[in-house]
Design brief:
single chain; about 260 residues; alpha/beta; Rossmann fold; two-stranded antiparallel sheet; about 35% helix; globular; disordered N terminus
Length: about 260
Amino acid sequence: MICSACGNNVEYFRACRCPPIIVTGCGHSGTTIVATLLGAHPSCALIRRETFFLSHLDRAAVAKFWEYARDLRATRWVEKTPAHVNFLHALNIANAASGMRDVVPDYRLVLVARDGRDVVSSLMRRGKTFQAALARWNKDTSAAVTHDLTDPKSILVRYEDLVAHPVVWVGRMLTHAGLPLDPQVFAHHQQPQRWQGAVVHPSAAEPSERRQHVLRRAWQISQPLFDGRGRWRSNPDFCAQLDAFWARSKALMGKLRYQDEVRH
């Protein structure tokens, strides 16, 4: 295993040559399935939990992820933590007290966005109030779309585009990471998957929205990519707030090209 000193040894990180693919965006936007698809590539090692390494500036954790990837003979490791969308500045700061650039210099960033109606509705099903869910989507998605997308290390993927054209968009994400498209990325659901210690068989029933969070994540990554567009329409609690949603989110929805979508 890696000694604790390696966590701050920049030369160690430079020698590893196994950079991360960092997947982030507002929770319930599709970050889990995106990370799972990328992590199923034979050259990638999926970190099967949310790590908060970026928000916590946890260099020792990065060293462990590299060791894990090396043991699997991977050339990249894939990590997803939705909260990281608000700490992207740390990727451009080399100072150990406030950044991570020197330990993940060759990272690739995948920002995932989704129709705010579906995200807010999903968060409400998990017990969030409309106001809390809307505030989270606006804050986290604003952080994603205001990130410098001209940076060649970054790519923005809309969940709806991924669902509509999976081969195209998975191919773009892999090309972005310097990897070829491999059919194995679409076969992740053919065997039980583990998430944060929980293992769910692909044929298992879907866990509840409000409880069993870890089990639900394990179930999600055990399924093929499925179409979750427009689920907000089946949530009467959200539908009752639709006008309030548009009043506070019209500009951001427009930036994501949802302004022409049907509003009812």
